[in-house]
Amino acid sequence: MTAAPHIPVLLDEVIEGLAIVPGETHIDATFGAGGYTRAMLAAGASVVAFDRDPDAIREGQGLVDASDGRLRLVESPFSALDIAGPVDGVVMDIGVSSMQLDRAERGFSFQADGPLDMRMSQSGMSAADFLNEADEGAIADVLFRYGEEPRSRRVASAIVAARPIARTGELAAVVRRALGYRPHDKKDPATRTFQAIRIHLNSELDELAEGLAAAERALKPGGRLAVVTFHSLEDRMVKRFLRERSGGEPAGSRHRPAATAPRAPSFEPPARAVRPGEAELARNPRARSATLRVARRTTAAAWSANGGQ
């Protein structure tokens, strides 16, 4: 196989969690630069890999050619991954990929100036479109909900006052002025704003919810699900999904009435969450917020969209 341009986070732990047996079929729900896929192929699996980014699909064709027919790339959001089922394993690496972050022209990062884009699929509304057209309240809501920005209204007001904004460097400067920034600060205050806008534009939390349900439908009995997340919003969703589907959700409360009938768990209780060790953090500072959760599918039917069976 050709050399991988990026080493994915928690790679050894993901492959261990997938417990690949040669000849099995696995899904890489977030192909990106192909790091997990390469390791899955090396372990003897056939792989169906999804990505909604046309750059990832195009640049992955060399790996397809080198795979002896064991890799198929699908240009699609991973919420549709169950079209490839039934399979023995699914891995999801949630969020923006390194290849997207590292290319200034994609507009995901303020580390280098570029057009304010942030579209994973390279279609639809861009970040500049949203920030220049949405009203102040809508922008503040997005920053608070998806970036957990405590001063979202101040940032939204500053963005509206500075419009039009077309570049990542411009947006970062606006946020820094609004919140205060010193170069030696541990975390750039623009980080939360960029995260929030990206998640909103790409409907990432909706996609995650639908993708988890699709993986549940696609996995064979005994199939393994491995999900790597990078911030608390994502991790809470995955943790809640696996707790509920493994029978660990409380029977009911005043906010959520008890189910009228017991539901057979579709997953075994998940393994303990895994986080990067010091050696990996030294190699890759981007791994510092990563969390891996792994669970195994039971023989029970997949739950319906509303939680029933």
UniProtKB/TrEMBL annotation:
GO CC terms: cytoplasm
Pfam families the record matches: Methyltransf_5
Key words, A-Z: Cytoplasm, Methyltransferase, rRNA processing, S-adenosyl-L-methionine, Transferase
Domain of life: Bacteria
One of the protein's GO biological processes: rRNA base methylation
Catalyses which reaction(s): cytidine(1402) in 16S rRNA + S-adenosyl-L-methionine = N(4)-methylcytidine(1402) in 16S rRNA + S-adenosyl-L-homocysteine + H(+)
GO molecular function, one term: rRNA (cytosine-N4-)-methyltransferase activity
Binding locations of S-adenosyl-L-methionine: 34-36, 51, 78, 93, 100
InterPro entries: RsmH, SAM-dep_MeTrfase_MraW_recog, SAM-dependent_MTases_sf
Main localization, broad class: cytoplasm
Compartment list: Cytoplasm
Family the UniProt entry places it in: Belongs to the methyltransferase superfamily. RsmH family.
Protein known as: Ribosomal RNA small subunit methyltransferase H
Source organism: Sphingomonas yantingensis
Record lineage: Bacteria, Pseudomonadati, Pseudomonadota, Alphaproteobacteria, Sphingomonadales
Chain's gene name: rsmH
